Amino acid sequence: MAAILKKAMSGLLDKMLGTAKVIGVNRWEPETMVEIDVQMPGLNMDKWKTIHRVKCKVGELEYRDYTPSCWNAEKGTFKLYVEAGHDGVGSRWAQQIQAGDTILLGSVHASQIPVKEGKVLCLVDLSALGHALSLKQLTDHTKFPLEVGVFLHESYEIPQVLINENPEFEFLYRENEHNVPVLEKWLMSKKLANYESICIAGNTPMVSQLRKKLKAIPEVGARILAQGFWS
Ligand SMILES: Cc1cc2nc3c(=O)[nH]c(=O)nc-3n(C[C@H](O)[C@H](O)[C@H](O)COP(=O)(O)OP(=O)(O)OC[C@H]3O[C@@H](n4cnc5c(N)ncnc54)[C@H](O)[C@@H]3O)c2cc1C
Question: Is the domain defined by 112-230 classed in CATH 3.40.50.80?
């Protein structure tokens, strides 16, 4: 019965999704981080005022959310950053994807962005790199100066273009250290009273632990926007 319902739901969902083309794939070193360039001319990206997610069909009756970033509304293109180092349907989909593939996806709102002008601190893991890049694209940097700490669980070679275009992003890899202690050390090096907003996204336990720690710090007056992705 559950399988029949799942199939019916999937049929409905497929009808709501649109066809997009993979126009480029770049795998980092190690290859477990995959950048996927997508073109979907029908998607109205000009209307994106909040961080979006695209629901992708990643297998038979399987759908996963990924965050579109670096979009160009005129060309109808955007980029997905997919972490694919674990065993999962979405991960396997990203491991085998190639330029020229056709994919099914639909875009919806995912997260709010800061509204009160002032400095923004952003704490993410690599699965939420797209989230931080999307936040950057949606905000005016003169009114919302941004600093981003990205936790890396492996010693990746970060593409030089990504480093050059995003000097406000710090990529944090510490051998044998976990997400929360690394990001906590980084945020404690900041003058926390100076921030109006703090955005946290990625692994759900990491997001909730960092949120809890920030809430317990008296000088933090910032609004905290938290979004857990996976656990
Ligand atoms: C709003 C939103 C936006 C998202 N945007 C992105 C994005 O831009 N990029 C991205 O990579 N993911 C993103 N995710 C997470 C993504 O949708 C999937 O949940 C995740 O990729 C896992 O799917 P999967 O099928 O590979 O693994 P699952 O089948 O869901 O999980 C299999 C196993 O792998 C573990 N696991 C899942 N993800 C990871 C990971 N990243 N690292 C290590 N272990 C993991 C799980 O705990 C589980 O044990 C987003 C999620 C949400 C809700």
Answer: yes
